[in-house]
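Minutes, project huddle
Topic: does the predicted pose make sense with arginine bound?
PN asked that the exact inputs be recorded in the minutes so nobody has to dig through chat later. Recorded below.
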Amino acid sequence: MSDKKTSNQMWGGRFASGPAAIMEAINASISFDRKLYAQDIRGSIAHSEMLAQTGIISAADQEKIAHGLNTILKEIEAGSFEFSTKLEDIHMNVEARLADLIGPSAGRLHTARSRNDQVAVDLRLWVKDECFRVAEALKGLIQALLERAEEHAATVMPGFTHMQAAQPVTFGHHCMAYVEMFSRDLSRVRDAIERMDESPLGAAALAGTSFPIDRHATAKALGFREPMRNSLDSVSDRDFALEFLAMAAICATHLSRLAEEIIIWSTPQFGFIRLSDSFSTGSSIMPQKKNPDAAELVRGKTGRVNGHLVGLLTVMKGMPLTYGKDMQEDKESVFDAAETLDLMLAATTGMVSDMTVNAAAMKKAAGSGHATATDLADWLVRTLGLPFREAHHVTGRAVALAEDKRVSLEKLSLEDLQSINPGITPDIFSVLAVQNSVKSRTSFGGTAPSEVRKQIRAWKKRIAKA
Ligand code: ARG
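Predicted holo structure (tokens), as shared on screen:
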């Protein structure tokens, strides 16, 4: 009884008029696909021009159509356009308004076209534009990292594995690791642009059209390299959106790792960096606190970007060719991932430029935890000719002795070290200091400041051209 009442109450709410209201609510996409208005109008103008050029519609009709569409563009941009849920989506909203404005000629625009190729071309244009935005933002972030790397090419910090101090590295080298990661994201976004640079317009509903259209002309007019070669594929795949989301998820994951490091580095326990008030907040009740909120939000927002990738993969995985209304669910994932990624990139670039590096704290941490133990072992191999395994064993004993004496490895006396291996000479101290350890790692891609500076120079040139 009470169950029945509850469901009746629901029925009486938003969906009071019953099935029609429910259908309208589930079917409409205008609340989000209005974002495609500029692409929709661009696509329609290109289509109408091609229809006139091929003699499918008259030049007079085309002029009216183009004029009407430009008026609609202005109305939408001025905020005076009235979007209607009854008209379902952006395509029908624009077309209905066109009919208001220019009368029956409006009906000729949809010749040799379907909403299926229309929505596919609109979304491709949008995603392509967004990819260019992301590429620019990535370049900005890479440049910010290069600047910090240059400044700190010789600033020693502990390098970690398992979150345990492993070997000394430089902060510049660490920044350059992210330059490499974000550069791969940049190349991923460029690759994705290459592949999505084909126009689906003219595939019509799914099978092509009997009208003598010119798909090469519309592809060119819309800035695509060429038309897609298969009409079924044109209206049914969304792999360009998936590639964008996959790139976004990988990039967000990189951003999240950097955010996590920023959070750790800015704790009082580490004290490696300080964020200014622009990128942190105080606590309302604990006056000593400075919270790295922006970094935490970059880390947190990665969840939704990654979720959108899985969301759209799941929408697409069971779709038989060609179009199905399921695919209307592609847009919110793409729009939200794009907006989120843009913000994450801006916040990260801001934090990288903004943070103050505490070189003294980094150096102190690099010197603790016997981080130059590997250097000692390498010295034994190089100078005394010990096999590495034996050198490792000797070094282990030196570390144990240092622990016993509660000093760092480099503070052991020569006599201490010689008690473990009599062959050790004072030259050993040249490798036990963190600065020297770092300087000696001159292998290609290693942490030596000279190596790091080479990489910085190379990347600066590459990015200037990218
Ligand atoms: N709003 C639709 C979408 O986003 C447009 C395409 C509708 N096509 C159709 N055959 N009902 O996918």
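Observations noted during the meeting:
- The pocket of arginine is lined by residues 29, 33, 89, 115-116, 119, 323, 325, 327-328 (CB under 6 Å).
- Residues 137 and 361 are 31 Å apart (CA to CA).
No decisions taken; revisit at the next huddle.
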